[in-house]
Amino acid sequence: MIEAFATQDVYAAESTLMQTLAEGELMARAVEGLIEVVSARIEQLGAQRVVALVGTGNNGADALYAVAGLALTGVNCAALHLSGKVHPGAYAAAEAAGVVLLAADENLTIGDFSWGEVEPGRADKTSPIVQFLSEADIVLDGILGIGGRGGLPRWGATWVAAVPDTAYVIAVDVPSGQDPNGGALSADGVFADETVTFSVAKPAHLLPPTEAAAGTLTFVDIGLLPSAEPSVRRLTRDDVADLWPVPTAADDKYSRGVLGVVAGSERYAGAAVLAVTSAVEAGIGMVRYIGPATPTGLVRQAVPEAVIGAGQVQAWVAGPGVDPDEGTEAGRAQRQAVVDVLDAPEPVVLDAGALDLVDDSVALRRAGRTTVLTPHAGECARLLTRLTSQEVTNSEVSADPVSAARRLAEVTGATVLLKGSTTIVVGPEGPVRSQADGPAWLATAGAGDVLAGVIGVLLAQGLDGPVAAALGSLVHSVAADDASGGGPLRARRVAQALPSTIADLLNRGRPTVV
Ligand SMILES: NC(=O)C1=CN([C@@H]2O[C@H](COP(=O)(O)OP(=O)(O)OC[C@H]3O[C@@H](n4cnc5c(N)ncnc54)[C@H](OP(=O)(O)O)[C@@H]3O)[C@@H](O)[C@H]2O)[C@@H](O)CC1
Ligand SMILES: Nc1ncnc2c1ncn2[C@@H]1O[C@H](COP(=O)(O)OP(=O)(O)O)[C@@H](O)[C@H]1O
Question: Which residues form the YjeF N-terminal domain (predicted)?
Answer without folding.
Answer: 10-230
